[in-house]
Every structure is written in structure tokens, then in C-alpha cells.
Amino acid sequence: MTADGWVDLQINGYAGVDFNAPGLTVEAVKAVTERLAADGTAAFMPTLVTGDPEMLVGTIRTIMAARKRHAECERAILGFFLEGPFISPEPGAVGTHPVEWVRLPDLALFERFQDAAGGLVKMVNVAAEVQGAPDFVRAVSAQGVVVSLGHQMATSPTQLEPCLAAGAKAFTHLGNGIPNSIDRHDNIIFTALVEDRASVMFIPDGHHLPDTMLKLYCRAVPLKRLIAVSDAQYPAGMPPGEYEVCGAHARLEEDGLLWNPARGCLVGATSPIAKMMRLLAERMGLAPEELRAIGRDNALNLIGMN
Asked: Which residues make beta-bridge pairs with 17?
């Protein structure tokens, strides 16, 4: 990889700094930016999951203050990804997001976040099947915001078409944020793999997707549509043990697996994107130019920064 480093569109937290918990400080944002850079992440988008809107607005303002005060934060923090709260509340689809804060797509609430971010909310996740999703997608897409579809129960082209036609441009960590049991033919993974209008974001950490699935993605999806993301949570870089993530108990295993025993689901990842790109090189045999596209250029292209 060049000195420019990798780009990660989905960072929930890192090295003990949680973007989805109260009490975030400007100096903590600076510290996590420096730690990410040391671990190979040159630029990233802080990711906010479903939660108390007041707390999330405060988080956005703190991160914006860090961008204003510290040059390294301004360079590295590209904008924000709102992974919640406009998702499905159904088991499997909701993942570890707190169900009580899930909301239907709400343009006024989105604008609150966008105002706090000074227009730097660059991407927002939506469940395609929920009430009002197509109109919301159309409205925020008209502002230049990327809509990614995920944490949803929608599976078929028919269910996804209204949002894709309205401007949705990506799928959020494809293969995750869905129920464990899906139809063998009519499922979101197959639908997304052949959908040329939207990029496929995926988590190649060795836990979220098996190697067979990674190989399928790399073979079936045109290179320009593949984007690796870490979905890193704040226990990344921390010792194994018990943590609270998104308001729920999570366990970090010795091998880096972070999961919620009560729900039986993963809780984001604990590897930096540089480690994931090494995995893709070693297990998938990808060439340097392919890795650069998947780990940098395609991400910047998606959010209009390349």
C-alpha cells in the first residue's frame, strides 16, 4: 500500500474510545485518530449506531470540534456514517443495536444530525422494507448523501427496487445484519451480488464472513463495487474480556471475536482495516492494485472524495 494508507468508512470506536457512548472528548478523538493512523488507517468515518439522539448529536459536535482543533483529525475524519436508527427492529436484522431507539426513516431527525455535522454526514443506512424508506432515500440522496441498505429484512429485487430507484448506492456490511437463517434462493446476499447500481461493503476480518463467502464476493462482484470496512468497535486493540457495547454485554475472545452471548450475534470487529487487507491478500490472493481499490479508492469514490 502507498503512504496514503487505507480508508475505512465504518469505525464505531477503537482502542477504548467509543463513538457511541456518552462522555466523548476532543482529546479522545485525537488519540483514536492517531492510534488508527499508527495501525494503518489513514482516513475514516466515525460511525454512529442506533441510540439516544441527544447523545449522538453531542458526539457529532465533539468530533467536529476535534476536526477544528487538530489538523490530523481534520485530515483523517472524512465525515460521518449513520448506521442507525433507521433500521429493522426484527431479530437478526437489528443485530446488537438497541431496539428501543430504532426509528422509521425521519428526515427531520436526519437533519438534526446533519446540522450538528456541518453537512458532513456522508452516508446513512436504511432498511429498505420499512415504511417511508423510498421517500427518505430520495430526499437525502438529493443532498448528495450516500444511502446504504442494511440491517434489514428485505431480500428480493422487488423489495429493494424502490430504494435503489430512489438513489441507494450501497449495501451495508453484506452478509451481516441479517437473520442467520435465510432462503436458499431469495436472499439479500445473492440479490446484492448481482445489483450493479450499488457497492458491496463487507467485513473481511476472518469472523464475519467465511473464506468461501469472501471468495464468492471477490469472484462474483466487479472490483469497482467492492469496499472493505472494518466495522471496528471500541474494544479493538483491547485485551480479551467482558465489555459493554451498544448498551449490551459483549465478550471479546482471544482470537478477536467480539460477540453478544444473549443475542448470539457479532458486535462489530476488532481488527484494523490494514489487518483485513492482509487477510484478503493472503487468503484470496488479491494483487496490490486490487487491494488498493477495495481498501481505499472505491470507498473514496462512493462518498465523492476521489
From this structure: 14
- Domains identified in the chain and CATH numbers: 6-120+171-302 (3.20.20.140)
- Strand bridging mode 241-245 / 248-252: antiparallel
* pLDDT, tens digit (0-9, with 9 covering 90-100), for 221-236: 999 999 999 999 999 9
Q: Give how far Cα 187 sits from Cα of 134, 147, 156, 159, 180, Å.
A: 20, 20, 6, 11, 11
3-state secondary structure of 3: coil
CB 83 within 8 A of CB 48: yes
The predicted model scores a pTM of: 0.94
Query: In this predicted model, what pLDDT tens digit does every residue of 165-206 receive, in sequence order?
Result: 999 999 999 998 888 888 888 889 999 999 999 999 999 999
Residue 301: strand, helix, or coil: helix
Alpha carbon 51 to its chain centroid, in Å, reads 15
Eight-state DSSP code of residue 295: I
* CA 159/CA 195 separation, integer angstroms: 13
Cα(187)–Cα(67) distance, rounded to whole angstroms? 40
> What's the farthest any 2 CA atoms get from each other in the chain?
51
Q: State phi, psi for 87 to the nearest 5 degrees.
A: -125, 180
